């Protein structure tokens, strides 16, 4: 009986320990395009590839490689997270249109947060933190940030850098489990 009680107390304590172990950069919560919660702390300890996206951009075909990477490396810990934004005037009008476009055109299964700003004073707090941690704010759609499993180290990659480019893979592969 005492063991069960101790185990129950330990389980109840896990959320507070979990929150304390979450790196500051990942202490952000969003809703997905489908309205489900997306807690970045749940991704702590694994590599995360964050991308600001847009549905009507010349770089939109990068969705294909992002999804392929997600499928290929998900079992080894990689999560890709998309953040649609209309900061560069190339995103669809609402979250449902964005979700439909991503699913029907590119068969996206990786998490996509609701549309938000990723640049300037109106940037969501996570993108402000990414810009500060990496020294680079998005200059255009499909800016990529690879967050190391420590949740502190951030490698920025420009719009023109393909998701599966050698320089991205050189940083990502050692992080995979």
From TrEMBL:
InterPro entries found in the cross-reference section: Glutathione_peroxidase (IPR000889), GPX_AS (IPR029759), Thioredoxin-like_sf (IPR036249)
SUPFAM superfamilies membership: Thioredoxin-like (SSF52833)
Annotated signal sequence range: 1-19
Domain of life of the organism encoding this protein: Bacteria
Keywords: Oxidoreductase, Peroxidase, Signal
Gene Ontology MF terms in the entry: peroxidase activity
Protein family (similarity comment): Belongs to the glutathione peroxidase family.
Protein name: Glutathione peroxidase
């Amino acid at each position: 009986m005492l063991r069960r009680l101790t185990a129950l107390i330990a389980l109840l304590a896990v959320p507070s320990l979990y929150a304390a172990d979450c790196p500051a950069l990942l202490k952000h919560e969003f809703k997905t395009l489908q309205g489900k919660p997306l807690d970045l702390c749940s991704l702590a300890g694994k590599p995360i590839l964050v991308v600001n996206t847009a549905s009507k951009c010349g770089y939109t075909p990068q969705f294909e490689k992002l999804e392929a990477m997600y499928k290929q490396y998900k079992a080894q810990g990689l999560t890709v997270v998309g953040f649609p934004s209309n900061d560069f005037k190339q995103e669809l009008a609402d979250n449902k249109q964005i979700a439909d476009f991503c699913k029907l055109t590119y068969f996206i299964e990786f998490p996509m947060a609701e549309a938000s700003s990723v640049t300037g004073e109106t940037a969501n707090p996570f993108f402000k933190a990414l810009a500060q941690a990496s020294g680079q704010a998005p200059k255009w759609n499909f800016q990529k940030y690879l967050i190391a499993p420590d949740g502190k180290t951030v490698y920025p990659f420009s719009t023109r850098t393909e998701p599966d480019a050698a320089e991205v893979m050189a940083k990502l592969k050692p992080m995979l489990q």
